[in-house]
Amino acid sequence: MPYLNITEVESALTSLATAYPTTSHLLTLPEPSIEGRTAHALQIGAPAGTPRACVMMIGGVHAREWGSCEILVHLAADLLEAHQNGTGLGYGGTTFTADQVGGLLQRLDLVFFPLVNPDGRLHSQTVDPMWRKNRDPANSGGSADPNCVGVDLNRNYDFLFDFATAFAPTATPQVSASPCDPQVYAGPSAFSEPETRNVRWLLDQYPRTGWFVDVHSYSEDMLYNWGDDDNQSIDPTMNFGNAQYDGKRGLPGDVAYAEYIPKTDADNAALLAERFCQGVGGVRGRPYKPLTGFHLYPTSGTSDDYVFSRHFVDGDQGKVLGFTVEWGTAFHPPWAEMRNIVLDVDAGLVAFCLATT
Ligand SMILES: [Zn+2]
Description:
By secondary structure, this protein is of the alpha/beta class. The chain has a single domain, classed as Aminopeptidase (3-Layer(aba) Sandwich). The chain has nine helices and twelve strands. The protein has helices at about 5-20, 65-85, 100-105, 120-125, 165, 195-205, 265-285, 305-315, 335-355, and strands at about 25-30, 40-45, 55-60, 90, 95, 110-115, 210-215, 220-225, 230, 260, 290, 320-325. The strands form three sheets. An eight-stranded mixed beta sheet has the order 1-2-6-3-7-12-8-11, sandwiched between helices. β4 and β5 form a beta hairpin. The longest helix has 22 residues, at about 265-285. The protein starts with 5 loop residues before the first helix and ends with a helix. The site of zinc ion (ZN) has 4 residues, from loops.
């Protein structure tokens, strides 16, 4: 089976919802994409008596990272089938018992949103394989340059969106305010795009979400908070919301600024990332590494930092630890290799979910 096109990703979700009516539920996202496409998400879990904690997993944000959709569709299908048949799951050398799978679907709601950016995936699969952004022409200023179309959705969330103010002049966050940047244009304002507003809506629908995973490629890493600077657990006032530290963020190893994360959250995030990597490594030995987002490169406006920041901005919001998988070593490897990566990452995600408490 080759990579799924956008119609096939959507039909996979509806087929699963039809095949497993008691353990899955199809959600329609409220906002059509820029080109008018309606997106869906799938919630899975054993029939619930009481509200449960939720793990949310999204993919297909960056258009060229094709396998992210398949990773999430296959994981949902694997869990639903194993739960229905009362069996365990095996991914190469990483295995899970029937009790583990059954317990997972009893204890948690798992929400899969595998294709956040359908317009971009279509463009990448039919026109420009290396396309990353969505297909929003609104900020192109009438330019004929095709790079002036689109927003990098994973810079469009409301976290240090005004990076020019937030970061040190010598910092190098991977983000741009230029609409013609072919890769990392953040958009005119946070949540300017319907695709990111859909993700925010989904978070609002599941206030018991405790863990959020955004599936990307590539670099064989599992990233956790934060992405804007080094972590520190000593001074709560040194944080992204404190304007006193504007112009100081984003430099590694300095004392002028590091982003506050409570010690228990830092420990939990590191442990979960480690469990993910252990699950991956057991399949066929791929050496995925747990590290904070900042240690890949400094960023603003990403999904993982936005979801974690919500609790600090508004104490009524539940705390959500944010993660970004960077699978593989290429954006669209040959399908024979992508199949193996799907097994790697799905094993890691099951191990991750089992480690949530
Ligand atoms: Zn990406």
